[in-house]
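Shift notes (night). Ran ARB-07466-like C-terminal domain-containing protein while the centrifuge was going.
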Amino acid sequence: MGRHSLSRERRRSPAVLAAVLAPAAVFFAVAGDVGPRGARVVDQGDGPCCLEIVAATAPAVVSRMPGSEAGIGLGGGQFAAASRWRVDTRSRALPSGVAPEQGLQVKTILVARSISALFPEIHEIGGVRADALRWHPNGLALDVMIPDPGSADGIALGNQIVGYVLLNASRFGIQDVIWRGVYYTPEGARSTGADHYDHVHITTTGGGYPTGEEIYLR
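Came back to this:
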């Protein structure tokens, strides 16, 4: 191979490597369970419906150097081969709601954002605060404040939120809900002395503290 050919190969190599390494960077940025810097998807729905991997044999990129040949690329068993990712989480992503999220765990944040998205009548949700019990201080509990809680509309709204949370108990990691003297769990309900007539108290199993790279999905 002549000097001119080698020179052309050297000039092409950075562009070729960039063309492959850039998609690989996107791969790690969105695939939280396969990349060290990926997003952690906290999904209320039935599985990651909007993440699609189409597997294929990964091409190797060969950089030719004088007297040697080095293969660089997605092959060699370094990580799972993929020819295409379709990431369509934007339409399902839940924005921050009315609850202050500092100190909340991921399942608690998912509940708070979901309630804010579905019930715009709610203007205040309490989260972390000092308490003799560990739920609020540890980011495991929410107080969903009900507007005009003694009215027929207020009671109906509280009932709707209780029903919604319990319907999604496994997805939300619900431990219990308290509203108007009734203690609800995914297994059933019983009367209790705890009043909670002006807010719906929700306790989750937590799921750990966020890293800042979570994506909360509807």
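Confidence is low (pLDDT under 50) at residues 3-37, 46-87. The chain has two domains: 3-91, 106-217.
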